[in-house]
Specification:
Helix content is about 80%, strand content about 0%. The chain is built from ten helices and no strands.
Length: about 240
């Protein structure tokens, strides 16, 4: 019981200290709104809106989670407040889940901003929400754990942002967000399958308009694998670099 009390205290502390601050709330809304407006204005008809919603949703999650988490964790480590958290009566695994839960929730909220706007432009009644919502949760989790991996691999906040872009910008072009992976040059296609976002976007494309490359079972398995792998690698780095 004490472990879960500590978990929820850390979770709500991060919500108050970081995610519910007015600048972050406004940024969390404006950023997906900007992405959505940019691509929806460029879209050619309602059918095109359906084709770009998965990409806009994924981008909103990716940039929202990695930007905030990589900065907050790095900032806490530099300010030594993370060291005090290590004294909490809670295993390291549960501690880091508490630290990342807020970012996962933030990413899920970001995801529904473009979906909400798309609902005014086209009919979303045919979307398989029973598949899309678990996919959004896993995309938020994998993106958050990618941000955690970045945060525990650097020492400075500016390094975290730079290192994040090393992963994020290739994902925009290689993960099938706005054009199919099969249209990529042959030598680039294998790189697409090294990113977790590829599998999440594939699920969303399948649920929104039916065009997807892989079976949903493969996509969900790959996303789950990336979540577990990134989280375990981050825990290893914390134990090796931050805990003496």
């Amino acid at each position: 019981m004490k472990r879960w009390i500590a978990f929820w205290n850390i979770f709500f502390k991060d919500l108050r200290a970081y995610y519910l601050k007015p600048p972050n709330v406004s940024w969390g809304l404006i950023f997906p709104l900007a992405w959505t407006g940019m691509f929806f204005i460029k879209s050619d008809g309602l059918k095109d809106v359906l084709s770009i919603v998965p990409g806009v949703v994924s981008l909103s999650i990716l940039f929202g989670t990695t930007s905030l988490l990589s900065v907050t964790v790095t900032f806490e480590k530099k300010g030594r407040s993370f060291d005090r958290l290590l004294l909490a009566p809670i295993p390291l695994q549960l501690l880091m889940l508490a630290k990342t839960a807020g970012a996962i929730l933030f990413g899920m909220v970001n995801a529904f901003v473009p979906i909400f706007l798309a609902a005014f432009l086209t009919d979303l009644s045919h979307v398989a929400w029973s598949v899309a919502i678990p996919a959004i949760v896993l995309i938020a989790a994998s993106s958050t754990f990618l941000g955690l991996f970045v945060a525990v691999s650097v020492s400075e906040v500016f390094e975290a942002q730079t290192f994040s872009n090393f992963f994020r910008f290739p994902m925009i072009f290689l993960c099938g967000l706005f054009f199919p992976i099969e249209q990529l040059p042959v030598f680039l296609r294998p790189l697409s399958y090294l990113f977790p976002l590829t599998y999440g976007v594939d699920i969303l494309h399948g649920t929104f308009h039916g065009n997807h490359l892989m079976p949903f079972a493969v996509d969900f398995t790959a996303l789950s694998f990336f979540c577990v792998a990134l989280f375990l690698i981050s825990l290893y780095n914390i134990g090796k670099r931050w805990i003496l």
